Amino acid sequence: MYLLAFLIAYLLAKYRANLSQDWSTKQIDDLIFYGALGAVLGGRFGYMVFYSFPGFIANPLIFLDFQNGGMSFHGGFLGVLLAMILFNRKSKKSFFQTTDFIAPLVPLGLAFGRIGNYINAELWGKVTTNAWGVYAPDQSGMWAQRYPTQLFEALLEGVVLFLILWLFSQKNRPLMATSSLFLIFYGFFRFIIEFIRV
């Protein structure tokens, strides 16, 4: 899922760069490379620290065991922030120029991540009797009909947020406007979904 997300982000970034003339092909290549590296390494490190710390301390090489999964949104976010700082030093772009440029691309990555959560049976919602409930286990293995919050998040934080930001960013906007809009709507959508998450 991540590979598909990075590929789509790369193609959309190239398209955006052609429209703005402020970004070179080399800068786009570097931006996506740094961002992907930050997301994967940060996501993995965050998972180790937040959710598997005793195992990580006992055997630090499990960090490299990507086959058994384990990515953290928080770690990925911090990894991408660090990657953007490094990219900005190299490219001489300001931090907010970069975040405004990539903000419309991020929701699709979030959507693919949440679809991955659905496929891996992670992050289910509360028990429900509604028709859209999906029969799934919780962390303790108890099966019940649950809200498919991963799919709701993929729709709201992914598709809807992408459309809002993509359309908003088609015109020249003040610095930080697109980044701010991302934070506002991401927070709003996440707040809504939290009411039905476990």
Automatic annotation (TrEMBL):
GO terms for molecular function: phosphatidylglycerol-prolipoprotein diacylglyceryl transferase activity. One of its GO terms (cellular component) is plasma membrane. GO terms for biological process: lipoprotein biosynthetic process. InterPro entries: Lgt. Pfam families: LGT. The keyword Transmembrane applies. This is Prolipoprotein diacylglyceryl transferase. It comes from marine metagenome.
